[in-house]
Write a structure and sequence with these properties.
The chain has helices at 11-21, 35-40, 42-63, 98-116, 120-126, 149-159, 177-194, 214-225, 250-256, 264-280, 285-297; strands at 25-28, 68-72, 129-135, 137-139, 163-165, 171-176, 200-204, 211-213, 231-233. By secondary structure, it is of the alpha/beta class. A 4-stranded parallel β-sheet has the order 1-2-3-7, sandwiched between helices.
């Protein structure tokens, strides 16, 4: 593996890397990915998530090396209609907070490029197929991002301190990160082998049984580690987050034959197992991670 560090807002760098290494498959996952941080740094959020996406697509268009491009955005890209409906791929883009809005914009950018440069007519000339992927709230071992629920719970548990949360009753589509990644890789493969047939937007979320509240996650994490975690709610005004968010993944299940394999109970168990191993300070965490990947692959 060749690893090159860089800023996706730097078009010249992105273009030069594409030109030098000529990737045939591009999976774009770089982002400013935190809601709360987007209120503090909206310019960085918009420039990274929108212009960064433009730079990836433009470099791929100019260099012309890629056959398959997957642009990963977010389940928060959709306009909130303040109802309990699961989002389907044709729903309108939106987002009240800067992060969600930037992801909706990234979707609009992607589909503008599809319509303008990567459509069927252009595919016959260039052979480049592009799709966007929208996953649920991914969780997994190794995440240390600020203001993320699992990370905050782990820190509270490891350090025996109170947990501060924002919306205990908010319901989210929780899923293990390997579930989302399996969808991205399957989509990239389909774009590579069958081109325009799989171009466009795709949801990769958990089954509805995995749509649980923040409070449910905290309580069940406590049960698994057998330790009570004190928590309290902080006033987050003017932060805005929807009460209910879920994805309809019928399209991916029917057309890609993609499935979600882990219940939320098993997902949370895998996550806790990873952090417990880390907390014991006697394990090779790379091996623990690889073992979970192998374990997941056996389910496919």
């Amino acid at each position: 593996m060749t690893s090159i560090m860089g800023d996706i807002r730097d078009y010249s760098h992105v273009h030069d890397v594409c030109k030098k290494y000529k990737p045939e498959i591009v999976i774009h996952m770089a982002a400013q990915s935190l809601v709360k941080y987007s209120y503090i740094n909206p310019v960085e959020t918009f420039s990274t998530n929108i212009l960064g996406t433009v730079n990836i697509l433009e470099a791929a268009r100019k260099v012309g090396c890629a056959k398959s491009i997957v642009i990963v955005t977010s389940d928060k890209c959709y306009e909130n209609k303040f109802n309990q409906n699961d989002h389907i791929e044709s729903d309108a883009m939106g987002g009240q907070d800067p992060y969600s809005s930037s992801k909706g914009c990234a979707e609009l950018v992607t589909h503008s490029y599809i319509d303008s440069f990567f459509n069927q007519e252009q595919y016959d000339k260039q052979g480049i197929a592009v799709a966007s992927a929208r996953a649920g709230n991914v969780i997994g071992g190794g995440d240390w991002a600020k203001d993320r629920l699992i990370v905050d719970i782990v820190n509270a548990w490891m350090n025996s301190r109170p947990l501060i949360i924002r919306y205990p009753e908010a319901i989210r589509p929780w899923q293990h990160v390997l579930e989302a990644l399996s969808g991205y890789l399957l989509l990239a493969e389909k774009l590579f082998t069958d081109g325009m047939q799989y171009s466009g937007p795709w949801n990769f979320g958990p089954d509805n049984d995995n749509n649980k509240s923040v409070k449910w996650i905290i309580e069940n994490f406590s049960l698994i580690v057998n330790k009570h975690i004190d928590w309290s709610v902080v006033n987050t005004a003017p932060l805005y987050e929807s009460d209910y968010l879920a994805l309809n993944c019928k399209k991916a299940k029917q057309e890609l034959l993609w499935e979600s394999h882990l219940s939320l109970e098993k997902t949370l168990r895998w996550v806790v197992d990873w952090y417990v191993a880390l907390n014991e300070n006697s394990h090779d965490m790379k091996l623990i991670t690889i073992e979970q990947i192998k374990k997941y692959q056996e389910l496919l």
